[in-house]
Amino acid sequence: GRPGLFRLRGRQRRNGLxxxxxxxxxxxxxxxxxQTIERSVIRRGAQLLSLSPWLxxxxxxxxxxxxxxxxxxxxxxxxxxxxxxxxxxxxRWHAVATVEQALGTTPNASGKQHNIALAAAAFxxxxxxxxxxxxxxxxxxxxxxGRGFQDGRALRGGELxxxxxxxxxxxxxxxxxxxxQAGLNPLERHAHxxxxxxxxxxxxxxxxxxxxxxxxxxLRLANPHTCAVAFEVQAAGDVLQVELLAEHPxxxxxxxxxxxxxxxxxxxxxxxxxxxxxxxxxYGKLSSSASAKSPV
Length: 296
Known about the structure:
The chain is an alpha+beta fold. The chain is 37% helix and 25% strand. It is built from eight helices and twelve strands. A four-stranded mixed β-sheet has the order 6-12-11-10, with no helix packed on it.
């Protein structure tokens, strides 16, 4: 279809830009002075785009998204992480970790189920080479209506709302959780601000979530292994299954989420793996007024 064609052409343009930039670097020689100037340009650009909170909030959301995308583009161009790998044959690869979750049966769960099933192909059987990075939005692209995404549940400003592409946070969380178990290193991950569930309704450990917002918040993981790894995502009906495969056998890592209740009713969760704390997150509780206004 046309949306896929436009996305392919956009990806080809980005890959062409990266290739041209690398050819220039090779031709002139990347000496210490050039690297210093290059890093300075990227750093100054990031500083200009990282506006103060009050000024950032005053800008129209479309402009804020454009500035954020520009910042990410500059960093990705510098680090050579613009390109998206194509699918590869993984039938003989080795399973390292698997996460299986229910997608829920709320009144608007069908939108989430549709969005996750539509996004699955963007993440399946695409190799993350040794030292390479995975980016949720770089791989998926914009979750727009023109590409077939529907309204689904999303958490915005501490309230549950419906938005196009809603529900993809559960997919991001599953990718993050299985990535942790497979030894991938989180480069960027944003937690939800509140805990939406009770221990009886929770489909994943508190602390294993990852919220994503196109143009603002991404999920990025790095592969520290000496072999390639790849996700395999399947969404059928009410069940989401995310598996991480490796080109060579890898031992899964034990991940521990340590919860501590606070006097104000919030919780602090520490994420530990291999004796190291990877994240420390505070979760509030969804207010009764926000829950009452929720469309889901």
